[in-house]
């Protein structure tokens, strides 16, 4: 500690001595007051939200570039996941990981087009809240089962819930798509119900 204090004192003394020499030399050649050296200031640190809000200041080409890059990454992950679809029972954790991350990349790519805040507000709108919340929760649980719990059954279950929630969320952007799907389900279930009940009565 004493050596460090001595070095600090010596450096400050040399700095003061050098400053006096500069001032005397300046007074010899000029009557104007000497300008002080500018103090370098570090730029203020940007918070995470400031970085996200900067997405709204991107140019049109930057938005398109970011959109296609992130979408391309998502498609790569989804292609890898689809290559494991035939052996999903054996590679459930890997399939769930690549499938979930690919979907997240594809969803996040739209933030470059509509903006991060707009996308978040859209997810939590009244007609999309259930689907959006279910998708986010099932995605988290899928990654939890794949990376930490290492549960193949959990990966398959939550990946299926994730896919259903994502499809229901996407259908909310298509006019009357949910209503049409509900009507189709009612027609198909009404057609199959008597057939299944007849088969069940024959087997019993």
TrEMBL record:
One record GO biological process: protein transport
Transmembrane segments: 67-89, 95-117, 129-150, 156-176, 183-203
Keywords in alphabetical order: Membrane, Protein transport, Transmembrane, Transmembrane helix, Transport
InterPro entries: Vesicle_transpt_Got1/SFT2 (IPR007305), Vesicle_transpt_SFT2 (IPR011691)
GO cellular component: cytoplasm; endomembrane system; membrane
Topology within the bilayer: Multi-pass membrane protein
Broad class of where this protein is predominantly found: membrane
Subcellular location: Membrane
The family this protein is said to belong to: Belongs to the SFT2 family.
Function: May be involved in fusion of retrograde transport vesicles derived from an endocytic compartment with the Golgi complex.
Protein name as it appears in the record: Vesicle transport protein
Protein's organism: Strigomonas culicis
